[in-house]
Each structure stands twice: as C-alpha cells, then as structure tokens.
Amino acid sequence: MLYNSTQNANEVVSAAQAIAQGISKDGGLFVPQEFPKYDDETFNSLLSLDYKGRAKKVFSDFLSDFTEEEISECVDKAYTSEKFGGTNPAPMSFCELDGKKLNILELWHGPTCAFKDMALQILPHLLTKSLKKTNDGKDAVILVATSGDTGKAALEGFKDVEHTKILVFYPVDGVSPMQKHQMNTQEGGNVNVCAIKGNFDDAQTGVKKIFTTAEVSAKLAQNNMMFSSANSINWGRLLPQVVYYISAYCDMVNSGKIKMGDKINVVVPTGNFGNILASYYAGLMGLPINKFICASNSNNVLTDFIRTGVYDKNRAFHTTISPSMDILVSSNLERLLYMLSGNSDEITKSWMKALKTDGKYEVSEEVKSEIKDKFYGGYCDDKMTKTTIKRLFDQDSYLCDTHTAVAVNVYEQYVNETGDLTPAVIASTASPYKFSRAVLEAVAPECTLPETEFDMVDTLNSITKAPVPAPLAGLKDKTSRFSDVTEADEMQSYVLGALGIE
Ligand SMILES: *Cc1c(COP(=O)(O)O)cnc(C)c1O
C-alpha cells in the first residue's frame, strides 16, 4: 500500500517512508491511496482475537512494507499488560445518564493516563523500524508541540529508544499543573522539555516551521540526524487509533450490546481531529458507523465548520478545563478535506493556503453536504462540562474527566435534537485524575480546594472511591528535571542549541 501527500499528487511514498518522514516535503500530510475493505466475515474473524491480534490484522493491511514478524514485535512490545493494566488496553464501561445508554471506550489505561498512549506506545517501534528501512543510519529527532497530553505520552514512548532524540514544547500557561509535572519529571537520556510563551497553536506553528526550513534540515543532515514527527499528523499515530474503534465494535458484539452488522454512532472529544478521523477511516474500511459526533469545548471552530462549511480561526482563543482540546487549527482535518474533495491535492492546497493567509476558507457545496450527512458538530462550555461530570457521577457513580464530559454532553445534545438512539461508542480520552482540580470542583462544589494538585487527587479519591491510576499515584515523589522557557519565535535556535549544533 502506498501513501500520497494531501498537497502534491506526485509525492508517493511507502508506509515506512510516511512514518519516518512524518510530514511531506511540501507540507502536506500522508494518506493511504486506498483503504482495505472488511466484510462481516473479516469482522467475525476478529471477534475471537484479543486486542493485540486485532491490531496485528489492521496493521498488516496498511503497512505492506513491514513483515508479519516486525508488526508482531511492535504490537507485542506496545500493548503489554504491565503498561496498560490488563490484557485489553481499551476496555469499555457501560453506564446511563437520564435514561440514555453510554458505551464508554476508556482509552486512558496506558502509562500517562491519556488516550495518546494508544498510539505513542507503538509509534517509536514503528518509527525505528521505518528508519532502518528508509535511512542510512541517521538518528531521528522528534519535535513535539503539545497541548499537554501528547508531550508526556511521546516522552514516555520514546525515552531511551536508540537512535532517537525527543524535544517537547508546551504552552507555558496552557497545561494543567499535573501535566506540567508529568513532563518536567520525565526520565530518559534522550529527552528535553521546554515551555514557550504562547498558546498551543504558536507551538504547533513553530514546530511546523522548523520542520520545513531547509537550512535547519541541512544542518541536521550534516550531523547525521533527521527530523521526524510524533504529532498526530504522523501516519504512525493515526493508524493505531483505527484499531480501537474496530476492537470496540467487536467487544460490543461479544458482550451482546449489538449484533454483527448493526450500526453504531461514535462520539469523540476533538482537538486536532486525529481521533475522530481514525474512526472515519474505520468507517471507510467497512465498520458500520452511522454518525461521527464531533464534540468541542468553547473553542468551537469545528462545530461551526461542520454546521456551515466555513472554517474560520479568526476568533478568541479560550483556555478551558479541557485543555487538550484548546485548539483553533485542527491539523488532521486536512486529511478529511482531501478525501471529500475527491483526493484533489490542488483543492486541498488552496484551502490550506487560504487558512494560512486569511485564517479562513469555505468548502464547496458538495463537500458541505457530505460533511453534514456524516458528521454532527456540537460544543459545550466549562460550566456544562462540570455539570455533566456531576450528573453522571451522582446518577451512576461513574467518574469521567473533563474531555470525556464534553463528549457526553454533546452526545446528549445530539440525541435530544435528533432522537437517534443508535448505540453510541463514546471515546473517553483521559483519566479523571489527570484533571483533578476541575473534576473535584465538579463533583464536590462545596469542598474547599486543597493546595496542591496531589492533594486534590487524594481528596477526589476519598470522595469518589474511583481508583487512582498507578502512574499518577507515583508522580508525587518525582523531582523536576526541566524548567526552560523560551519565546515562540526562538524555538528554532532553542532546538539547534539543545541538539548541540548551533
Ligand atoms: C489530545 C486529546 C484530545 C483531542 O484529540 P485529537 O485527536 O487531537 O482530536 C482529547 N482529549 C484528550 C484528553 C487529549 O489528550
């Protein structure tokens, strides 16, 4: 299977090249030229497999230049019971809210307690194998812009992986104290963490610019290094996410919630559009998905886009209690637009260019109606997010984090508006303890807030009795290693300095 750039039809690469490079030279994103199609028989054959078995099947259909052994090795190393606290790294919880059934797909049982582990525990293995296939022994330099969770998950995935170095930038005031502490205490000899004075979009723009600056790449090449990306624009990030939607469907069939062939809806709390795009790709492979419900917080640029066909990032940026979704430029949307424009690199390029120059573009009527047909967009502010956490906990003793609560709330809005009761899989993207302050304020508004984030974890635990994930419980005793802060427009020199090649 070969991959195209969304912005240049002549750029055709293998899976290993797509993963090793991360982003295409022209700035476009790599997309598969076609999608494998699974029928009922294929899905039936997946029912008796465990998560790893299902993952191996999906990976082997997309990574045609990897051997079965290579894929097995990557999957077996990534999804261990030790790292994910059980044999199913993505278990489901079933609960009810005001009579609506919620099928919650918990994607946060990995080492950093957010869903990004699902991809970032396997990406380093895919990447080192890809580099061996495509490169003459260059070391990979991973640059990451993070709104909080990617950074820690990438650091944890890449720590001490041979022939890699990783450098993470986060917005200085844009992540939770817990996220900051998780990153600044990161262990490993090949890691570096730096805050930037700006928001996530500044960080992401900065990283993209460094990637595409020829003189920087040349400097790396002279020193036997090359850039690669662990951001959700890397194909090696997206593909692992396709697996859990397919696996969740199988688990729903196995537990009798649905029958094989029944349709489901998916609800995804969305930031960079990676997670929901993975569900869309699962749909293209034949997974019977009726509606893709895209849930945003007050940064509701995607809600507006889905409803009007106009993407307009010229608006106020809100810092919310679901910070991993505080994003105004959703990079992975480009991949959807490419598909919906009939794989047109020209059209995709023109929209992306307009986004860069005017901060805004409008898609064609055809694309608009296709988006409306498949997607539903909704949003929910911080107040509603907290109310949702409280209602769900009070009614069914289920404690969810702020991002998941946004999804639950938008799902309620969807059902109220449409009456569509198709069973819905709701992606739960973080442990509630990762956002203890907001979750505690939500479930116990009368409680006096403890001083530190760690005390909030303890208080939340004693009130709710929900177990604290081991990686968060152990964080308290770790000492900080990183404290650098830099201007957004000085990221490039920071990178060269950190690599020792100014
Ligand atoms: C990254 C993240 C999201 C957003 O996912 P995208 O793939 O960027 O849309 C949602 N919730 C949490 C907790 C996250 O870490």
Structure description:
The chain is of the alpha/beta class. It has a domain at 88-114 and 236-435: Rossmann fold. 47% of the residues lie in helices and 18% in strands. It has helices at residues 15-21, 40-47, 51-62, 68-78, 81-84, 117-120, 123-134, 149-158, 177-184, 200-212, 214-222, 235-254, 274-284, 301-308, 333-340, 345-358, 365-374, 382-396, 402-418, 436-443, 453-464, 470-473, 491-499; strands spanning 2-5, 8-14, 30-32, 92-97, 100-106, 139-145, 164-171, 191-197, 225-229, 264-269, 289-296, 310-312, 360-362, 375-379, 424-428, 484-487. Helix 3 crosses helix 12 (235-254), helix 18 (382-396) packs across helix 19 and helix 18 packs across helix 20 (436-443). The radius of gyration is 21 Å and the shape is globular. The structure holds pyridoxal-5'-phosphate.
Strand content: 15-25%
Cα-based radius of gyration, to the nearest Å: 21 Å
**Amount of helix:** 40-55%
Calculate the terminal CA-CA distance, rounded to whole Å.
39 Å
Under the CATH scheme, which architecture of one domain would be assigned?
3-Layer(aba) Sandwich
Physical arrangement of strands within the biggest beta sheet: 4-5-15-10-11-14
Write the CATH fold name of one domain: Rossmann fold
Question: What hetero molecules are bound to the protein chains?
Answer: pyridoxal-5'-phosphate
| Total of DSSP H or I helical runs spanning 4+ residues | 23
